[in-house]
Amino acid sequence: MSLQMVSALSNSSLLQPGFSLLNFDGHIFFFGQKGWPKRSCPTGVFLLDIKQNELKMKPAFFSKDSCYLPPLRYPALCTLRSNTKSDEYQYIIHGGKTPNNDLSGKIYFMSLVSKNSKKMMVRCIEKDLDGDVPEARYGHTINVVHSRGKSMSVIFGGRSYTPLTQRTTEKWNSVVDCLPSVFLVDFEFGCCTSYTLPELQDGLSFHVSIARDDTIYILGGHSLQNNTRCPNLYKLKVDLPLGSPAVTCTMLPGGISVSSAIVTQTGDTEFVLVGGYHSDNQKRLVCNTIVLEDSKIEIVERVSPEWTPDIKHCRIWFGCDMGKGSVLLGIPGANKQLISDAYYFYILRCKEAEEDKEEELTTQTCSQTSSEDPGDSTPFEDSEEFWFGAEANSFDVDENDTYNEDDEDDESETGYWITCSASCNIDINSWVPFYSTELNKPAMILCSSGAGHWVHAQCMDLSETMLLRLSEANVKYFCNKHVDLNKGLQTPQKVVHLKKQPMKPLRKKKSMKLATSTKKSFLRRLFE
What we know:
Blueprint: E1 2-8, E2 20-24, E3 27-31, E4 45-51, E5 54-59, E6 61-62, E7 76-81, E8 89-94, E9 107-115, E10 120-127, E11 130-131, E12 141-147, E13 150-156, E14 159-161, E15 175-177, E16 181-186, E17 191-196, E18 208-212, E19 215-219, E20 233-239, E21 246-251, E22 262-265, E23 270-274, E24 277-279, E25 282-283, E26 287-293, E27 296-302, H1 309-313, E28 318-323, E29 326-332, E30 343-349, H2 353-358, E31 444-447, E32 453-456, H3 464-472, H4 508-527
Parallel strand pairs: 1-5, 6-10, 11-17
Antiparallel strand pairs: 1-30, 2-3, 3-4, 4-5, 7-8, 8-9, 9-10, 12-13, 13-16, 14-15, 16-17, 18-19, 19-20, 20-21, 22-23, 23-26, 24-25, 26-27, 28-29, 29-30, 31-32
């Protein structure tokens, strides 16, 4: 195992615990940035480029038929193939936190549609579900199992907010473990079924799950209710006959007490377990090899890399599987006496040097990693899973075009979330796009009354056709409050003034006769 440091150029503040990595044919995409997307990359998805130990991020694009995808932290991800031997696959994304700390319960499918070196384009489709739909959550896992020629997804674990009926003022935004139910999701028919198994008594989050054929192994995890990391090892077996599916659970010996660990696949049946935490105040620096053969699992300790002093003494660490036996690890930059919100990153190669040369470094396996939320636990519970992975824009990206956060405006100073009128109903915590032209901010229009002020188009009950017409035409707009004071909405047309023709000068004879006649009239009145 070898460890190599990489430098994040100009945008390391976007890379923080909770974001994800998506790997399509060796192209790694970053998803789940810090905060809402901004102008430089309105989709919030970036292509990750690692060259000469430098990490660069280039804006990526969504196809025109893609749905809106908010930046989600701590989601559950896995790959889905049409069959076990297919080379084509897509990612399933479920749950996670939005930048407003709202939890998502939606499921998205993401696939690669264009590999153009100038513009990498992906497609994102939202999937509707029916039945026992799992509640919104984060810190959980999702896997795909194959049985009798059929496939289904399995969702387990995670955390969610306390139900509204149980909240108190002191613990309004507190989180709890989700019930230890197992959800089977059939994407072909869009239905979900939940199963309650007696072997699963406590809720778990930030655990490790590895799927192989019709079996899922669940290792470790953290229970908020008991504040423990029990060395549990569960074996879930899913049978998919023509009738109703059957789910069984077996508790196996030989588990490990760990949370927030990362798993990378190094062989057909071999995986490596890296990172995580033993307890609230102890990182886990030991690595393990996991072997799955003949419906059995074997976990043995292996030689760990030579961790740097910065990694050994840092308070938190986090990372993600990059595929082919490689892991991306991050530590806070404060350990190097720099700004506290910056992070430093390392690539851990778990394969031997000879094997590593035969395969591309930046390729991801379909195994599921786990993560921990720093905002809802102790300072050490910060390890989050990375996965890498946005709408077509009018600009192309060249090799030197990277995202620079310094070019952005401070979104907190903009007026998108103002109360524009007495009837304004735009709330940053609940707003969703209303017009097709909106992405992550509400459409606004300038009222020309007085010095002018901005209002939300949705609050003014403007149709999308009228909004586009007002934005393109040379007209003044007045909001609902000032429209009665300004009846003339159209900019007055420019008045063309007619040129006055100069009067023609009188002829000399006529002017002399007029002067003589005037003089005689004056003298007659004078002597009378």
